[in-house]
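**Paired protein data**
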Amino acid sequence: MRSAGRGLCLAMLFSLSCGHAAASMAPGSTRDRILAPVELDPAVQVRSNEVVYQVHGETPAAVRAQMNEHRPVGKYGPFDALTTWFVSSHYPLVKEAGRCRLGALGIELTITTTLPGWDGAEASGRWQRYMTNLREHERGHAQNARAAAQAVFETLKKVPAASTCSELDKDANRAAEDVTHSFNAEDDAYDQRTRHGESQGARFP
């Protein structure tokens, strides 16, 4: 007998990236490990969105003041950019021989990155370098989100059958929460290593 499964939903929000001063990455320095490519199982579906908040000003100082006023707020306060992600896992709960197991898994990952936008006169020079570095920092958080989604998938595949579907659903939730907590910690460590993108050159002006 097969029963309809409840979807496992895990919400994760991260405050990311730069606010104030920093030097560019030193010559010869390597890219952060979090930026390594992530191979996803076909069951892990990703949707990526970008949101732009427009800033205005004739000078870099004026643009900075605009960003400070309008930039997004994450769990550690306001930063120039913010990446949030949400993972949901869906599975049927299958009853067989008096036990309940997880059926075919489906994982959905939604990543939303909020960035500043400025079409001012200096946008062709200093601003473009800043935006390149800022995007690179945010890409690290997005890569961490992908790794988290893949890890949730791999973890849920190993959740053993239980005597009841209610018990199984709780076991699956606990297992996935343990995984996502570790990726929360990795996001925080990444921000500490890069000073929220400052060591990667995400600085303006």
About this structure: The longest strand covers residues 106-117. Confidence is low (pLDDT under 50) at residues 1-29. Residues 22 and 198 are 5 Å apart (CA to CA).
